[in-house]
Amino acid sequence: MAAKAGVELSGTFIAKKNDSLPISISIHHEAPETKSRIFVRGIAQDRSVVSFRANARLKKGARKADAAINAKALLLSQNARCELQPDLEIDEQEVRATHTTFVGPLDEEEIFYLQSRGVSEEKAKELLIKGFLNIAQHVKQVK
Amino acid sequence: MSFTPPTYQYGFWVKDRPYFRSPHGLTKKAVEELSFQKNEPEWMLKKRLEAFDIFFKKDMPEWGADLSGIRFQDIISYLKPTAEQSKRWEDVPEGIKYTFDRLGIPEAERKFLAGVSAQFDSEVVYHKIKKKLEQQGVIFCDTDSAIRNYPEFFQEYFGKLIPAADNKFAALNTAFWSGGSFVYIPQGIHVDIPLQAYFRINARNMGQFERTLIIAEPGSSVHYIEGCTAPVYSQDALHAAVVEIVVKKNARVQYTTIQNWSNDVYNLVTKRAFVEEEGEMLWIDGNLGSKVTMKYPSVFLKGQKARGEILSLAVAGRAQHQDAGGKAIHIAPETSSLITSKSVSHTGGRTSYRGLVRVTPNAKRARSHVQCDALILDKDSRSDTYPTTQTNEASARLSHEATVTKLSDEQLFYLKARGLKEADARSMIVNGFLEPVVKTLPLEYAIELNRLIELQMEGAVG
Questions:
Q1: Nearest CA to CA, how far is B371 from chain A (Å)?
Q2: Which pick of B216, B222, B294, B433 has the fewest CB atoms within 10 Å?
Q3: What residue in A sits closest to B384 (Cα-Cα)?
Q4: Which residues are in the SUF system FeS cluster assembly SufBD core domain (chain B) (predicted)?
């Protein structure tokens, strides 16, 4: 990336049946004041296997660079598998770098709330998953 | 040493019977001779020899820190008494003496830490504590004599948590281990003062390949402290310890290490705890010294509602690489783990957090959170975060957060405006950053650690 360049990468994945989904993202910051945002939401169903790797390298000279990795996945089946590996390698001082990951089930309380509003359990789950995968909405929050 | 138990056979400490110097290097013969000198049971020699073969078959770990500087043949030639009796105080490097001064370490302790005296002069204190522990049925001794006096525990647990085949350095340790502590806490007993290895009469806990086994029976609790904050002067180029801890139902074990080896040491340690139902294991792992450290204390949460916590603290300065972290393996339902890592790199040092959280199927409703915070003090230093999360259980919740920040100019400016010198301001900020880990330490350790960090920071102002 050149000076002050920026990249924003967002994506969703939906893994189902016997899918094997290796996702690998690599971002190298080499110039000053570069900025990167990786934003991923995904679900793993059935017997799918998801392996998510993201590597953000802030090399020497990438002064005031700013990198963020944010990856969350819902594991929706007892037979699905998920591995998250967000690496940060930082070789410069004046930088900001963060990553956040989460993997887990849907929130029971949220399902319960929707049910108390007359939504069936099935429908509630569907709404919550759709909302989770709706990246556009999330990306706005990140900025 | 009138209270030395008759079975306490430190024959090789006596001058007229010199401990063997291993002219053979890294050989089977050296293993056999070591076992013979220790007057060990046959099965232990067998274990050592098996491990010796495994060591040669195992590859060097290539996923972590740079270990290409290790020369095994040279290392094994140091397999003589761990404390060099012949060393004189005058030979201890000035830097180490200066640090002792600044930390306010008592004279007797300094000589011990520098390896000049093999014995820390704490007999009176130790004697009292020992009596009380004996009344409670607590066993606390060095591993060498424990293996002769309490073989039943070793046959059951030795190498069961960390088999020789676990990794190359665990194999090396199993083949050549010497020293370390054995701790046994009977059912329902709470040991209310921290057990410190250097309370032991012949504090040979700082060996090159020390081996520690801790067993906490149901409902018991203990806090074990390994090493100390003062720099340990050592001639060994490699330290590869193995620590195995069994936490039974409802028991609690806290294991605290503040490692501060001198800056030429490779410190490659395997530490693992098995935690049964509703048990709790807490690792507090501080890494300040050594040239390269690779150490990832682990908790295997095997019983329902077992809990594991790992607090990792790393400070890396010039030419140092601290590759540290933690592992939590969730095997049973409703288990929880928390890993907190705080690292500081300065003056060209490198810190890496490396961790693993794995949830196996049927670990229903397991929970884990990993928090890594790194602080970089200058442009020559480096910080990495390598976390891995693997899950196979749909009801488990795993989260991870990491931040890397620099020392903030605003904070520095504020403190300087209040009349603090740059160096003081920096060490104050660093100490504040590390506070969540430091405050879990016993008071005297926390104080020493704070002083030590201040001392390191002095050199870091550029």
A1: 9
A2: B433
A3: A89
A4: 199-433
Q: What span, in angstroms and rounded, lies between the C-alpha atoms of B354 and B402?
A: 12
- Indicate whether B430 belongs to any domain: no
Domain boundaries, chain A: 6-105
Q: Which residue has the tokens 């079975």?
A: B7
Nearest-angstrom CA–CA distance, B231 and B95: 10
Distance CA B341, CA A143 (A): 26
Q: Tell whether pTM > 0.90.
A: no
Candidate from A60, A78, A83 with C-beta closest to B388? A83
Question: What digits encode the pLDDT tens for the residues B140-178?
Answer: 888 888 998 999 999 999 999 999 999 999 999 999 898
Looking up tokens 């169903």 gives: A45
Complex ipTM, two decimals?
Answer: 0.87
Domain total of chain B: 1
Give yes or no for a contact between B309 and B336, defined as CB atoms under 8 angstroms apart. Answer: no
Residue B325 CA to residue A78 CA, distance in Å, equals 29
Q: Is residue B402 part of a domain?
A: yes
Buried b (16+ CB within 10 A) or exposed e, A6-19: eeeeeeebbbeeeb
| B402 to A99: CB separation less than 8 angstroms, yes or no | yes
The continuous run of DSSP H or E covering B376 comes out as strand B367-376
| Amino acid identity, position B182 | F
The reply to whether B442 falls in a domain is: no
Domain enclosing residue B259, as ranges? 20-407
